[in-house]
Amino acid sequence: MVKIQRLEKKFGKNRVLSGVDLEISKSGIFSILGPNGSGKTTLIKSILGLVIPDNGSISVFGKNIIKGPAYRRHIDYLPQIANFPNNLKVKELVQMIKDLRGCRADDMHYVEYFKLTSFLNQSLGSLSGGTKQKVNIALCFMFDSPLLILDEPTTGLDPISLIRLKDLIKKAKSKGKTILITSHIMRFVEDVSDEIVFLLDGKVYFKGSISDLKSKTNQQDFEHAIATVFSENHV
User: Fold this and answer.
1) pLDDT, tens digit, 9 for 90 and up, residues 48-94
2) Domains held by the chain: number
3) Which of 127, 154, 199, 233 is deepest in the core (most CB within 10 A)?
4) At 215, which CATH number?
């Protein structure tokens, strides 16, 4: 599904990715974790072709992404910050994304799922942060793509919407999809993840299940296990 080899990226003098090797070859839910500045968002944007690495290679669906952007049509992406024009109405945004993708979308199902029907005629600028996030999640899930990339998907969500999001992610997994997630919310990560990938200083320091991480670090809970990996490897 996704294969990354020796990936490197610098912004000026700041080295963000330092030879990342990562392979995700099966369906499931994979959470990419790490402190601020560890390279999570840069890694995701590299997979999407939005950041051009300095060295290394990325293959998605068995094809090197430098051969063209067509592979992106099979990826649904929820950015950490979605900057759409504030004057657009919600229904106009939904239609615009459908037109750009040019494929079947189950948009009304997700509009109703997140109780967004009453907001369709409102402009994005009039919405609360949490409601905007629900719109963005609906936009991401309304296409039936095999790979989903969710960058901090829980931002601004109320408890009920968070439960709905978890259910959506688990349902996507049950359909054989692969879901990549970044999040700072450890409880959420623990609830949904099959495996985690821990990034630190632009390198992968752990990939595996949460139970394997706990065993490796001799910790009983997830947060302390993550803290142990950080403290043992942070210079």
Assistant:
1) 999 999 999 999 998 899 888 888 889 999 998 888 889 999 999 99
2) 1
3) 199
4) 3.40.50.300
Q: pTM of the entire structure? A: 0.93
Residues of the domain holding 199 = 2-233
3-state secondary structure of 6: strand
Quick one: which of 24, 27, 30 has its CA closest to 4? 24
Whole-angstrom Cα distance, residue 215 to residue 209?
10
SS3 content of the chain, % helix, strand, coil (to 5): 40, 25, 30
The pLDDT of 1-19, averaged and rounded, is 92
The band of 235, judged by pLDDT with boundaries at 50, 70 and 90, is low
Provide the 10 A C-beta neighbour count for residue 60.
Answer: 20
User: Do residues 154 and 188 touch, judged by C-beta distance below 8 A?
Assistant: yes
